[in-house]
Amino acid sequence: MQLHEYRMWCCLGLACACVGCAAHGPRIDGTLPEGHPRVYVAGEVEVAPRIDGELRDAAWKGAAWTADFVDIEGSAKPRPRFRTRAKMCWDSEYLYVAAQLDEPHLWSTLTKRDSIIYHDNDFEIFIDPDGDRFEYDEYEINTLGTEMDLRMSRPYRDGGGFDISWDFAGVCSAVATQGTINDPSDRDEGWTVEIAIPWASMADTARRACPPRPGDAWWINFSRVQWPVRVEGGEYVKPDGAREDNWVWSPQYAIDMHRPEYWGRVQFSADAPGAGAFVVPVDAAVRMQLRHLIDADERYMSQHAAPPATMADLDGLWTPDDTLPEPIFRDGPDGRVIVQQAGDTTWIVDSQGQIRRVMRQGER
User: Fold this and answer.
1) Residue 192: what are its φ and ψ, rounded to 5°?
2) Which of 178, 181, 168, 96 minimizes the C-alpha distance to 142?
3) Is the dihedral of CA 159, 165, 167, 172 positive or negative?
4) Residue 334 — very low, low, confident or very high, per pLDDT cuts 50/70/90?
5) How far apart are CA 240 and CA 29, in angstroms?
6) Residues 133-170: tens digit of each pLDDT
7) pLDDT of residue 30
8) Which of 15, 85, 90, 357 is most buried, with most CB under 10 Å away?
């Protein structure tokens, strides 16, 4: 049995396209630092497919799949029970995302936009264009096609909050199900989703070219929330006190999607989907160093209930990159900051946790 149900919103004649990630990762030009998040090359499309959830259009055929999703805490946890993978591509108007989620029991309950969609099984997208950890965006969708989107000021652990009234203005989505939703009498195969996100909806906080320029790399991650359900009285029921699984593309090493420094890096290529190589960004090493510093700083705070006073306080909590100068603490206008030099560029993690690059004269 293959019963396809289509859910389309705000697509009225809109053509949309999608992207892909290789099963074993894209070709890589250069050397990624050890432990670097997963990477992907999003190819540019000339003809955008219609958003119908089916993934049959030509733009998808060349786009590679991402690696299969893993547990949010990484390889230390069991492999997900069901396969999840995604694709990406782009043009001058949209970022296109497609996902395939294997699922033997299609189940959803929420039908009102901006409901807390992760209370159902869902697929989620997180986007931080400039990788500064501030003002990033989140999107969620369930098998019924119900959407939630919001903008975060900064991660929760840094005192951040969310604005659920904010929307990806003009977003277009569709779900196709391979099975029947909320019917325990049969066994389902899964569901596929297509989403077209307008660049214009993110331009106000991107702090970089939006739409991106070929070669730009954004911080993006995907998550799947999966709840256990049982059958009672011929219906699916989520047990009281149930705990969800969280499966992701690039592991977070904590049950927390709001760690943008751990998200994958998606590079936008002028080549067709599947044709381009990932060119290691010049900031890859320093950004990994900053990630280690943020983690060490937080671990010290959790152990001592006070911030470290010197870099020596972090000894044993992180491993420095010998190719980079030693970072330092410095007093800033709003409190202590971490300063990391990389060549003739200075990077700062301020007292609120925002990552900033101090531009060299003449740079934009």
Assistant:
1) -125, 150
2) 181
3) positive
4) confident
5) 49
6) 999 999 999 999 999 999 999 999 999 999 999 999 99
7) 95
8) 90
Sequence ranges of the domains in the chain: 4-279, 284-358
Q: Confirm whether pTM is higher than 0.90.
A: yes
How distant, in Å, are the alpha carbons of 65, 134, 153, 210, 334 from that of 205? Answer: 28, 9, 10, 10, 22
Instruction: Judge contact between 8 and 56, C-beta under 8 A.
Output: no
CATH fold group of domain 4-279:
Immunoglobulin-like (2.60.40)
Q: Which of 17-21, 60-64, 282-286 has the lowest mean pLDDT?
A: 17-21
Which tens digit of pLDDT belongs to each residue from 169-228?
A: 999 999 999 999 999 999 999 999 999 999 999 999 999 999 999 999 999 999 999 999
Closest CA to 42 of 21, 68, 57: 21
Burial class (CB in 10 A: 0-12, 13-18, 19+), 185: exposed
Mode of pairing for the β-strands spanning 235-237 and 230-232 = antiparallel
Instruction: Say if residues 327 and 311 touch (Cβ distance below 8 Å).
Output: yes
Q: Which residues make beta-bridge pairs with 8?
A: 174
